[in-house]
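Appendix B, record 7
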Amino acid sequence: MRALPWLAAVLGGAAWGLCFGVAPRPLLPWVALVPLAWLATARPAGRRRALLIGWLHGFVHWLVAVPWIVTTIAALGGWPWLLLGLLALALMSLILGFFHALFVVAGQRLAARRPQLAPVLLPSLWVVLEWARGHLPSVAFPWNLAAYAWAAVPGALPLTAWIGSHGLSWLLASANVGLALALRRRRPTLAAAAVLLPLLFLAVAGRFSWGEGQEGEEREVVVIQPDATLGGDGAQIWQDYRRLIELSAAACDAATRDGQGDGPLLVWPESAAFPLVWGRSPQLAADVMRLASRGCKVLLNTPLEAPEGTYNGVLLITSDGVAGRYAKRRLVPWGEYVPLGDLMPFVGTLARISSPFRPGTELGLMPWGEERLGLAVCYEVTFPELVAEQVRAGATVLVTVTNDAWYGDTAAPWQHFRAARFRAAENRRPLVRAALTGVSGLIDARGRVVARLGVGERDVLAGRLRGSRELTPYARAPWLVPLGCALLLVFAIIPRRRAW
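C-alpha cells (predicted):
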C-alpha cells in the first residue's frame, strides 16, 4: 500500500493530461483530478513525501498534455534540436509540476486544519495556484486552464460570462475534491453533493445567460488560411505569399461583386506575409493597397519598427492607408524574447533564435465601422484578463491572429483554439481567429464555433457578425474569483481565537 500514492500520482497525472487532447472529453474531467484531490486530502505524513508525490503528478500531467513542445523545437532542425526539445519538455514539466506539489502539500494542511471547509478550501487553493501560474513574471504560462477541460460540457461556456474561466475551474475542482473526500470519508452523500453543485450552476447558465442583445448592423469578415509551409526555401516562401494574395483577391472580389455596401474585413494570420515587412516592401504595399482599393480592409501582421525597438504588430489597412495599429503586449518567453537576458549574458546563444521584439503598451483598439476591434496576437489570447481589459476599453469584436505551424498536427493548435472560445464566452463578444495553418474559426458570443478550418486546410472562412457593447460581470471584474479564493485561504490559515 505504500506504493499506492505514487501509483495514484502517475495514473492521475496521465488522466488529467488526457483531458486536453485534440477533442475535449466531457466525462473524464469529472473524475480525472480525483487522484490528486485524494492525495491532497490525506493526513499529513511528511512534507517532503507529499511534495514529491504532488510533483510526480504534475510532471506526468504536463508530459502528457504538452508533448508538442518537442515537435515545436525539433522543427528548427535535425536531431540536436530533437534532443533539446525533449530536454525542454522535461524541464518545463518539472517547473510546472511544482504547482501540483504545492497543491498536495498545502491541501493536506488545509484539510487537516479545517476539515469541514475542505470542500471549499481545496478548490480555492487550486484556483489561486492556477492564477499564479499565469502571472509569474517573465515565464507566465496560462495554458490549459482547468476550465478548458469542460469545453464540451453543456452550460460551461455560458457560465464563464459570470464567473470567468477561473470560476469554472473552481467548480471542476470542487466536483473532484468532493468525490475524493467522499471516498476517503466513505460518505456517498458528499459525492452526490459534489456532482450536483456544478450541475446546478451549469443548468442555470443557459437559462440566465448574459449579454444576448447585440447592437448595430452585421458586417462581413473573411479569414484567410493559406496553410503556408514552415521553413521553406525562398521559392516556397514566395509561392506561399502569392497563394495568400490569390485567396485574398478571390475573397475580396466575391464579396464586392455587387458593389453595394462596404467590402469585408480580410484577416490574415500571424506571419502570413513573412518575410515582407510593411513600410519596407513595395510589393506588400502594392498588393494590400490593391485589395483596399476594391473596398476590402486588410488586417495584417507585420513587425513594427520604432526608435526604441521592434514590435510584433498588427495593422488595419484601408484605402486611406493605415487606419489602426496594435503592438503585441505579451511576448512568448524564449520565442520572442529571452527572460532575464540582460542579467544572464550566457543565454545569448538562445537569443539568436528569438525574435528581438519589445512588448507593446497600448490597447490598440481599431475602428471597423461602428465596431471596435480588440486584438490578441497568438499567445496573448490565453490571458483572460488581457482580453477583458480590451473589452472594458470598448472592444465590441475580438480578433486573434496566430502562427501555429510550429506545433504541426498535434493537440496544441486545438488547445490554443479552445482558449479563444473561452475568451469569446467570458466577454460575450464574437471572436475571429486566423491561423496560418489552422485552426482558424468564427466563434459567436457564447463561445460556439460557427465555422472552422482545421489543421492543414487551405481555404477562406466568410461570415457576418455583429459586435456587442454590454459588459459581462466577468469583464467588469476578472480578478473577483481569484481574489475571493485567496481571501478564503487567508481566512483558513488565520489562527482561531480560543474561548476564555
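Remarks on this record: The longest helix spans residues 79-113. The chain has two domains: 4-210+479-493, 219-471.
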